[in-house]
Amino acid sequence: MNVLWVFAHPEPRSLNGALRDAGVRTLEELGHDVRQSDLYAMKWNPVVDAADFGAEAGDERLIVGATSARARERGELSPDIVAEQEKLDWADAVVVQFPLWWYGLPAILKGWFDRVLVKGFGYGIRTADGRTARYGEGRLAGKRAMAVLTTGAREPAMGPRGVNGALDEVLWPLQHGTLFYTGMTVLPPLAIHGADRLPEEQFTDARERLRERLRTLETTDPIPFRPQNGGDYDDDLVLRPDRAAGETGLGIHLTRAN
User: Fold this and answer.
1) Cα separation of 149 and 153, whole Å?
2) Which regions of the chain carry the CATH code 3.40.50.360?
């Protein structure tokens, strides 16, 4: 497999850095080809602005979706954006690694998604019959994706009744709203809890958990998100009443909720 590892941590000597190094070595030992986007090392610019879109942006009011789509069609996207899109085109699988900060991604990683997944590449795709291709369909369909993250919270505190909220719900914007939205098949995440005070023996366990997940990268069952165009949603994109009848919440958008 071709694997793109997107890494978002400012310190290569951190726990995250050590896990990244172990993960890349594991993939290479397994015979996979690996490319990295080490966002802090690259000094990645996370801010969308008119400079991303070359001459296409002009002096008119910037409408990011439409302007980015035209710039892509005309070959006028900023070279750093094009380079990351080429990595995504090359990849069969994407590992996104980050520390969870304030219930979300580090700004540099959020900005990577903002700038790279432009209209016509990450979204705004149409199927042959004219439907919008998203949530299970799209240009990135067929690629597998997995989040690897560290949290300061202990695992029980991010469980179903934990004060921090359940991890799958905290990660919903990334896993469902970004990765699955663009068509990727999303694997369950690997979370390392209590990362700020992890003793050596628990680091060894975390490293082995990561290695095992990478060994099964091609075979792990994905999160069973419902595809938008699979028949579960009506014309207003609302879940049909006979699916997860009487229930609400994010869990109803998983097929096992039937």
Assistant:
1) 12
2) 2-221
3-class DSSP assignment, residue 5: strand
Distances (CA, A) of 140 to 27, 70, 76, 86, 94: 21, 19, 21, 12, 11
**CATH homologous superfamily, domain 2-221:** Flavodoxin domain (3.40.50.360)
Beta strands in the chain (DSSP E): 2-7, 33-38, 93-99, 144-150, 185-186, 190-192
Cα-Cα-Cα-Cα dihedral sign, residues 17, 173, 195, 93: negative
- Say what the alpha-carbon torsion angle 226, 230, 235, 241 is, to the nearest 10 degrees: -60
Residue 141 has pLDDT above 80, yes or no: yes
Per-residue DSSP letters for 94-143?
A: EEEEEE-BTTB--HHHHHHHHHHS-BTTTB--B-TTS-B--SS-STTTT-
What is the pTM (predicted TM-score) of this model? 0.94
According to DSSP, the residues that pair with 99 across neighbouring strands are 150
pLDDT at 257: 54
How does pLDDT run across 216-248, given as a tens digit for each residue?
999 999 999 999 999 999 999 999 999 999 999
